[in-house]
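PROTEIN DESIGN WORKSHEET
SECTION A - STRUCTURE
LENGTH: 120
TOKENS:
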């Protein structure tokens, strides 16, 4: 392998990595941690940090299409249970956006989990 090719390949890999990181959406709220997952483990048995981060990702890429992102702490758990399914229907009515039933549950768990930070 010649050197130029190697340099170009590494360069592209770095660019791609940075591009992907930037596409993770606007930064809102605190980053989810394992502590957040542990806090809701009784409520959501088997819940993982990956699930929580996927919920955050889905929330940030679909829930600001019509209005700003609502803060997870701005609604109670009971309120979110009514709002999220209603809003996911709106997301799915938009061209190019679709959230599955699994995705809907991840969004709901994300807002409930991050909405209860510090309330335990
Ligand atoms: C297609 C446009 C659209 C999308 C996408 C959308 N919303 Fe909404 N949202 C609205 C409109 C319109 C209202 C005000 C009327 C209402 O409550 O239905 C609203 C209201 C809300 C409210 C306040 C409702 C209340 O009863 O307090 C919350 C919270 C909310 N949205 C969260 C979300 C979340 C979470 C998502 C992503 C799953 C989302 N929205 C995606 C259009 C949208």
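SECTION B - SEQUENCE
RESIDUE ASSIGNMENT:
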């Amino acid at each position: 392998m010649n050197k130029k090719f190697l340099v170009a390949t590494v360069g592209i890999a770095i660019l791609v990595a940075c591009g992907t990181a930037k596409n993770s959406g606007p930064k809102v709220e605190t980053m989810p941690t394992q502590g957040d997952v542990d806090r809701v483990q009784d409520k959501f048995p088997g819940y993982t940090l990956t699930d929580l981060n996927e919920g955050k990702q889905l929330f940030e890429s679909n829930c600001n299409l019509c209005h700003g992102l609502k803060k997870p702490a701005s609604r109670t758990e009971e309120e979110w249970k009514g709002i999220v399914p209603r809003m996911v229907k709106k997301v799915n009515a938009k061209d190019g956006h679709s959230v599955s039933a699994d995705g809907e549950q991840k969004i709901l768990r994300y807002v409930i989990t991050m909405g209860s930070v510090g309330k335990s």
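SECTION C - NOTES
Residues 27 and 60 are 8 Å apart (CA to CA).
Residues 62-63, 65-67, 70, 75, 83-84, 87-88, 90-91, 94, 107 surround heme C (CB under 6 Å).
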